[in-house]
Amino acid sequence: MPDLLLKNLLINGAERSVSVDGGRIEGFDARAADVEIDLDGASLFPGFIDVHNHGAVGVDVNTADAGGLIAIGEFLARNGVTAWLPTFVPDSDETYARVIVEIEKVIAVQSEMAIAQIVGIHYEGVFANEQMCGALRPQYFRTFTGSELHALPALSTGAQMTTFAPEIEGGIDLVRELTRKGWIPSIGHTKATPAVLDLAFDAGARHMTHFFNAMTGLHHRDVGVVGWGLTHDVTIDIIADGIHVHPEILSFVLSEKGVDSVSLISDSIAPTGLGDGDYRLWGEKIEIRDNRTRNERGSIAGSVITMLDAVRNYRKLGASDQTIAKLASANPARLISVDDSRGSIDIGKRADLVAIDADGQVSMVLVGGKRADGHREN
User: Fold this and answer.
1) The Cα angle at residue 118 between residues 176 and 65, in degrees rounded to 5
2) Which residues contact 348 (CB under 8 A, 6 or more apart)?
3) Can you tell me the distance from the alpha carbon of 29 to that of 90, in angstroms, rounded to the nearest whole number?
4) Three-state secondary structure call for residue 212
5) Backbone phi and psi for residue 271, each to the nearest 5 degrees, phi listed first
6) Could you give the residue numbers annotated as active site?
7) Domains defined for the chain, CATH in brackets
8) Alpha-carbon torsion angle 266, 129, 254, 288, nearest 10
9) C-beta separation of 278 from 286 below 8 A
10) What is the distance, to the nearest Å, from the Cα of residue 167 to the centroid of all Cα atoms in its chain?
11) 327 φ, ψ (degrees, to nearest 5)
12) What is the mean pLDDT of residues 259-263?
């Protein structure tokens, strides 16, 4: 007998039931189970996967300990995220090494917890262009002369993602080394020319970070990084808060790139979930007003949205449930090579699931079959 039966739900608009056993999806027929949950017509999605997240609920990844990372994971899970990559902003080697130890502590125990599971890490902008730094701290930027990757601690298991600018010194050799090591090279914080971007592509770069942001735009006499990304066979991720990218452009990019090539990210920062106010982060004051972030240099400093907010925004633009499932789950799962067990609602895959009602509210979240939305069945 299955552990759990989810009934009265919609998957891609069709009425279904889902049985869960041992933390995995067992089938789609209504059968007797130890526990039944009536989802009252809510839409069921694979759990969201956030590959770019700097923190939430007052916890910054760069300063977090294991308890802080668990607190982030609890918050993310309540908002539909079942897997994530803690994302570093450029910092000291000592900071990276300390936090990696804390991340490993969480990975060792998280399978028993109903929290968003850490499935890798993301180094954003360690190898960035100072002229496209955004909210990052250029004093920690590096070029690549052949040995710099050795200073970046890697996890014992999981995805390793790095956002880089290919035009920096040694940038193309960096792509080759990242690819050789099995890391995911993602183009971002860059003003590279199309010729340099072509070299990066040939060396193995196939993804672009927070598309449109911290990169040169499209002009009718200058292709720019954006134009290159629109016209080449690369995948992209995007911050769908309506601030980083205009809603009409959010629709445009789907039509131009196709739904299989776009992943949603939050790019959330530590104040996410705390509301408007003034905060200290990354050595400076970050002001948040009406969900818009601004640092002392006048730059947008990440976002304060969740993946759930991004999903809601795309639903408002008319995206179907099938499209949402790709943007928030299947595409990021494929990007970081966890699609064998996550990212879709298929028999044998993890029961990482989120149910959303017609008003866009979370009805239920399962992480490995465990409820993470605060509700407990008798």
Assistant:
1) 105
2) 24, 25
3) 49
4) coil
5) -70, -5
6) 267
7) 1-46+343-378 (2.30.40.10), 48-340 (3.20.20.140)
8) 30
9) yes
10) 25
11) -65, -40
12) 98
pLDDT interval class at 375 (50, 70, 90): low
Rounded to the nearest 10 degrees, how much is the dihedral formed by the CA atoms of 150, 156, 159, 160?
-10
Distance CA(19)–CA(29), nearest Å, equals: 7
Q: For residues 31 and 219, give the distance between their C-alpha atoms in angstroms, rounded to a whole number.
A: 58
Tens of pLDDT, residues 83-105:
999 999 999 999 999 999 999 99
95, amino acid identity: T
**How far apart are alpha carbons 21 and 106 in whole angstroms?**
24
DSSP 115-175: SPEE-EEEEEEEE--GGG-TTS-GGG----SSSGGGGS---SSSEEEEEE-TTSTTHHHHH
Separation CA 73–CA 167 (nearest Å): 35
Closest CA to 83 of 315, 263, 234: 263
For the cut 90, the answer to whether the pLDDT of residue 156 exceeds it is yes
Predicted pLDDT at 299: 82
The CA distance from 25 to 63, in Å, is 36
The pair of three-digit structure tokens given for residue 287, joined into one six-digit string: 């002001």
pLDDT at 378 over 50: no
Beta bridge partners of 370: 367
Q: Say if CB 357 and CB 42 are below 8 A apart.
A: yes
pLDDT in tens, 327-364: 999 999 999 999 999 999 999 999 999 999 999 999 99
Of residues 224, 135, 138, 140, the one with CA closest to residue 187? 224
Beta strands in 316-361 (DSSP E): 353-356
| Rg (alpha carbons) of the chain, rounded to whole number | 20
* φ and ψ at residue 267, rounded to 5 degrees: 55, 35
Reported pTM: 0.97
Tell me: pLDDT of 225 over 60.
Answer: yes
pLDDT digits (tens, 9 = 90+) for 292-311: 999 888 888 899 999 999 99
In angstroms, the CA 154 to CA 100 distance is 8
Residues whose CB is less than 8 angstroms from the CB of residue 268 and which lie 6 or more positions away in sequence, other chains included: 50, 53, 54, 55, 56, 302, 303, 304, 305, 306
DSSP state of 286: E
| Listed residue (153, 160, 127) closest to 142, CA to CA | 127
Does residue 207 contact residue 239 with C-beta atoms inside 8 Å?
Answer: no
